[in-house]
Amino acid sequence: MRILLVEDEPELAAATAARLTGEGFVVDHFGSLGEAIEAAMAAEYRAVLLDRRLPDGDGLSLLPVLRTRAAVPPVILLTALDQIPDRVAGLDAGAEDYLIKPYAFQELLARLRVLLRRSGAGSGASPPGVRIGRLEYDLAAREPRIGGTAVALPRRELAILDALMRRAGRVVMRESLEAQVYGFDDEISSNALEAHISRLRKRLSEAGAGVILHGVRGVGYMLRAS
Ligand code: CA
Fold first, then answer.
1. Which of the four, 8, 20, 52, 78, has the lowest number of CB atoms within 10 Å?
2. Could you tell me the residue range of the domain that residue 201 belongs to?
3. pLDDT tens-place string over residues 27-86
4. Which among 122, 149, 168 is the end of a domain?
5. How many domains, in total, are found in the chain?
6. CA-wise closest residue to 201 among 180, 217, 215
7. Ligand 1 centroid to 51 CA: how many Å?
């Protein structure tokens, strides 16, 4: 699940990005409004964490850009501006939520989960849980289970499974999978995705998931019941 983090304080940004990555998110971090706008136009994000005071402008200027996207990601403002008019301006401009700095990471994570759950349910595209074969997947918690038992997956494999379960029964384009699995800063070797797919396939098979991770040559991948 790919997240855009816009924050110009290097230490805060690094700490937040590291912890989100540890939770299984793919994080693209930018420290300026200009870079964030470019990223928002180039990639599809599930959520945006947005600082307001950026070196080249107010973070709120990113919101109209996000609204031009096919899937508009929910935004949490991360702001030191704790006065009521500033909060109201942020929410009026279309942000879903805000956190006042300094914030506790656990609170950020909790609010992010709420937004992701809400946006998943609101889109009408996917139910909160998906089942294929014996594999169940909770879209909000991003937790796979087989026969009721949680399955721990390395984060890139989880990102692949997440993308496939969200489009259960349909082919997910290879480019779309790569966009969900890798951030802008990751070096992608030509067969890296295949290596992750192959490990995920083996893991699901060994765990008795009852699914086939099917490759469609030249197009992408899909999951179906075996
Ligand atoms: Ca700032």
1. 8
2. 129-225
3. 999 999 999 999 999 998 999 999 999 999 999 999 999 988 888 899 999 988 777 777
4. 122
5. 2
6. 215
7. 6
